[in-house]
Amino acid sequence: RGTKQNVIARYEANETMKTDYKVIHIPEIDSTNNYAQKLIDEQYDLCNSVIITDFQTLGKGSYNNHWESKRAENLTFSVILCPALEVSNQFYLSKIASLSLISYLESLSITAKIKWPNDILVENKKITGILIENSIIGSKISNSIIGIGLNINQKEFSLNPKATSLSILSGFEYNLKKELDTFLLHFKKFENNLNKKEFDFINKNYFLHLLGVNSYLRYKNKEKTFEAVIENIEENGKLVLKSKSGEIMKFGFKEVELIY
């Protein structure tokens, strides 16, 4: 990892982007989220920074799943925010990350949907994953590390056959730096919405792009498999489903699974 002076030098050497994020590039690391947390623990000021790597040796997804990404073919990075957001509003970080990816893909004429809580699907295949880890002081979030894996140029996924990438969808090869810059412009837009506490705007857009809002899909929990439509998303992120018989059911993370 190098000395503190070396890290700072690398940090300062990167250009300040139009979005005001500063980018720290590490060729290889265990996990961008892990690296960000280590620097924060060592009292580095990483607010509004991005840590990106060519390859993660221990890339992780939600719920301790492994995130598959070939070296230098995709974007694997973490955005670090210091939002001073109430803990009760922490799911808005997941919402703006999801909406940023949806907006970015739409700019490439790719239609995507959000599979609750924050998987991004194109043609029912996963193109990106989000892992958010927050540090809390009192009732507020002091630091939020938003880890994102975005499949760009990888064409084969041995661990996840239900994965896709920009290159699979379009047949083109993409410049990773350009795509990161473009994504961060979309992310900044929704971060600004959050900073201005435009919660209604964020909620409406998140709900609009959810998979399963206007159609009955199959879900399963520990007890049964059933068909339901998404009725609502509560402020704490809980999923509210309505079955065909009219039964209202609420689920937290990992308590229900969409079968698609």
Class from helix and strand fractions: alpha+beta
- By oligomeric state, this entry counts as single chain
Write down the Rg.
Answer: 18 Å
Flag low-confidence runs: 1-17
Distance between the termini: 41 Å
Tell me, what's the shape?
A: globular
Number of strands: 13
> For the residues shown, what is the average pLDDT?
90
Beta-strand content: 25-35%
Biggest sheet features: 8 strands, mixed
> Could you state the order of secondary-structure elements as H and E?
HEHEEEHEEEEHHHEEEEE
What can be said about this structure in brief?
The chain has six helices and 13 strands.
Which properties best describe this structure?
260 residues; alpha+beta; eight-stranded mixed sheet; five-stranded antiparallel sheet; 6 helices; globular; disordered N terminus
